[in-house]
């Protein structure tokens, strides 16, 4: 089998497809969101316009997609994968989906005289890049055997879990353990931080004792560096925990720890950090205790920031002096919208272009060509690359400078984790400027 199709070029899918190309396979790719195929095309991939076109071009098709709804679109939608599936071909789904959907697809694939394996993976982005993923497979063992060479081009191990749906079930059970491990580690770090224990020393202890885990080994450096770049996002972990909760209900299996941990992930996602790595769960705990649980001595922002007992941020003397002696000159585009404004001539909800000019201890200074009013509440959205959740602010001061309106904006209800993110982003942008 040399002609491979690959659908889904996200954090995991793109490096998996790249490994197939490097191993000499002819790969036809498709992604629902444009713009993710260029690097793979440079490696030799052929780009298809639809999932159906992938099915026509390949003997074996791999899908790596985010959720059940997206899977249904790719398999059953207009120009979907199943519409042009060739008899004798194999589909391998490596997404994390519900076992019932995996069994449904297996039945519909068999009706077209083809084979299906649900084969999700364990191992996040680094394992996908290094080709060291572990596949847990549900389906016919003979079909798995026929697919072994392709799977081992992307991973180091294949484990047969049982009939169709078993791979999906195993993945949800596995990720339940991962989610619980994540919450356990960060909750322990929170206790240590509240008791004045250095984070690095505590993580060394965890790695050396009975609390050691693969999760700790992988995430301890990221936590110490406050590096929440995505290996596996918090929102995707929450999605898996929700699927696991539904599955356990269907199986009439009690899972009290799962439910508690799911609630913590839900609280974290509601704080706006869902697109960060799942270790950003730390932000939720930091808000609860009013202080960071880790700091990085080489990170100016993390080292300079502290949180007082009321959850407000303070800077060290050097940073405060810098702010007092000279305002930061910034030019960061924003999108603003009025949150609530009921007077005549209002434009509630209308997007307004703005510029972030300065950051103060209590808020932001923004400029806009649009006239706003004192005490008006505005919804502030930062550039996508900032990785910042939207924040709410109230206009407390108005100036006119060089024909443009400048507004002093008091940030309303800013959570500690948001202040940390905002400070870090502002410092990075000020260095660029």
**Alpha carbon gap, first and last residue:** 52 Å
Backbone shape: globular
Count of helices? Answer: 16
The count of domains is 3
The largest β sheet comes out as: 6 strands, parallel
- Determine the CATH topology of the largest domain: Rossmann fold
What is the share of helical residues?
40-55%
Cα-based radius of gyration, to the nearest Å: 25 Å
The neighbouring-strand order within the major sheet is 3-2-1-4-5-6
CATH superfamily of the largest domain: NAD(P)-binding Rossmann-like Domain
Overall pLDDT: 84
Low-confidence stretches: 296-328, 340-347
Structural class, from secondary structure content?
A: alpha/beta
Question: What is the CATH domain class of the largest domain?
Answer: Alpha Beta
- Estimated share of beta-strand residues: 15-25%
The tally of beta strands, per DSSP, is 17
Please identify, by name, the CATH architecture of the largest domain.
3-Layer(aba) Sandwich
